[in-house]
Amino acid sequence: MKAIALDLDGTTLNHAGEFPNSLIKTLQDIHNKGIKIIIATGRSLQMIHQKVPNDVPVDGFVAASGMTVYLGDTLLSRTAFTKEQVSFVLEEVRKHKIYYEITTSQSGGPYTYNDDYDYALEDLTAQADETVLDYENIGTARTLNSQEQWVDNHALDTNDIIKFYFFSNDKNKMDNWYDYLNNHFTSDAGFQIYRTSNHNSEIMVYGTDKGSGLKTIARELKLPLHDIHAFGDSMNDIPMFKVVGKSTALKNGQEDVKCLADDVTDFTCDEDGLEIYLKKHYL
Fold first, then answer.
1. pTM listed for this prediction
2. Which stretches does DSSP call E strand in the chain?
């Protein structure tokens, strides 16, 4: 393989959202062997840089599940919702009183409008069960203490919105919302739906995903897709698993992702599963 494509949450990062210090040296050694490193994640580029240490050698980024693609930090492609789609999403989340976060390509985010604070607070402060992930609890604490996330209605460029993320501590509420998304946010209307835990869901523009993002980077690097080895754990990794030469799911991954993958790591993301696998197969 000439490149590895790494998902972040639940793959490279542990469930507390931490990047293992020892993984830095492993990725440096792999890169020194001439193997390209690509980060492919649902996070925006700004959020990636908050999580991935500067001394990790990264050749490209597939950010926001393919909505933006970068060679280094140079933008290669960008896909955004139309104003009509944005209006439709906001109308629906307000009708159902679902907490949401907006991601933009220019400034990242997350952002939520001040007008929706009161009902959003209900999702953030509802009694959490044991299936809420550590990084989700960390995100909730960040949101509740943020001075930057809550913005006025006209603060964002609605031509630059690339992702909506939804969350609730109430699993039943999120289950119902996810079902509603599947029934009303159709591909015909230009929406792609993902869910990466029991308590979240997200939408991007249909036809743009991690698979399309890897194709863009591969063309730029003159790299055959069959020479890319992808690692992931959840449903937004499936599109890239389908286009690369080899795919590996983390032991903690969703069952349908593990069934699709060529192989599965012996250890979870909380047990340094990615690093152990990379050392065994690449070093």
1. 0.93
2. 3-6, 36-40, 60-63, 68-71, 74-78, 99-104, 108-113, 150-151, 161-167, 191-194, 200-205, 228-232, 246-249, 263-264
